[in-house]
Amino acid sequence: MKSNPIIKRVILISLFIFSVITAGSFGYKYIEGYGWLDAIYMTVITLTTTGYGEVIPLTSRGKIFTMFLLIIGMGVVTYSISALMNYILSIDFSKKRRDRMNKKIANLTEHTVVCGYGRMGEIICKKLKSEGVEFVVIERHEGLIQALSKTDYLYIEGDASSDEVLEKAAIQKARVLVSVIDNDADGLYIALAGRSYNEDLYIIVRANERSAKPRMLRAGANKVILPYVMSGIKVAETVINPAVEDFLNLSDISGDQEGKLIQLADLYVTKESSLVGETIRKVGPEMKRLIIVGVRKKSKEFIFHPKGDYVFERNDCIISLGEQTCYKDAMKNFNLSSAPCVD
Fold first, then answer.
1. Contact by Cβ (8 Å): 43, 24
2. Is the pLDDT of residue 281 over 80?
3. DSSP for 264-308, written as a single string
4. Could you tell me the pTM of the whole model?
5. Cα–Cα distance between 212 and 17 in angstroms, integer?
6. DSSP assignment letter at 88
7. Strands 317-323 and 291-296
8. Rounded alpha-carbon distances, angstroms, from residue 222 to 176, 192, 203, 210, 343
9. Tens digit of pLDDT for each residue in 81-113?
10. Which of 153, 234, 309, 325 has the fewest CB within 10 Å, making it most exposed?
11. What are the CA-CA distances from residue 247 to residues 64, 225, 287, 329 (Å)?
């Protein structure tokens, strides 16, 4: 294990100062006949140039010793303090912070990797943070890096399409990869690279063009998001069904109402979940604050509005409607996950 250089420096300086005080104390004791307390006191006030005066008037030999002590001792003390201050001032604190962050990232498991911290990435990170999901951001643009440095998010400065950067983000141990980079070519490569590193990784990629979606899915993406299409549909739904949109209010995740908004969400049944082997009818009273819209099986089969005798299985994805606080309670009470389970 490597020793800390600043600790070594402090120990060395302390030894220098201790040696000078020890030598001075011996000198005063045997030259002037002082007691140990008076000898140490005299040494300290001499080295610090306090000027309280001698405990007992000095002899000629004592005065000569004091002059040598002042010259040698003050030189050692001054040099020691100067060396320590120079070392402290030379520390690259930003590098230290980066090293600590890299260590935290290297120890992450089952986390989410977010590629891109633009407008979409910022919203995604805020939501993940509020839900207690561990994540690391990859960003290369200087302005966005500065914005990230003002947060407490873990982040890596670099190109998300670089294999080296993905490895630094511990992609091999991640559970979810989200790419919201505004470049279909980069998104395609990120999906391909993510799948090559981790077969169980759940990959979500942003695409600008519809034609890019099938290519990204073939490259390994589980889901491809088309922001402009989704935004258009959202506006159209608001025009056609304004009351429904006001009720769901899916797009607003800020303000005093956070946690009380009604939304649809995926809840995944883990192997540790108490729902495994239980029917909807049996657990219904405990989940009465959530409406189960449907269940998607691991085989991708979708069961709409399942009946009371439906038996939950591991890896079931429960599509439910309710307030955000209700989801958190259900996840805690039944050991559910907000992301697909890894077998």
1. yes
2. yes
3. EEEEEE-TT-TTTT-BHHHHGGGGTTSEEEEEE-TTS-EEES--T
4. 0.59
5. 70
6. H
7. antiparallel
8. 10, 11, 5, 16, 16
9. 777 676 666 555 667 777 888 899 999 999 999
10. 309
11. 91, 24, 20, 21
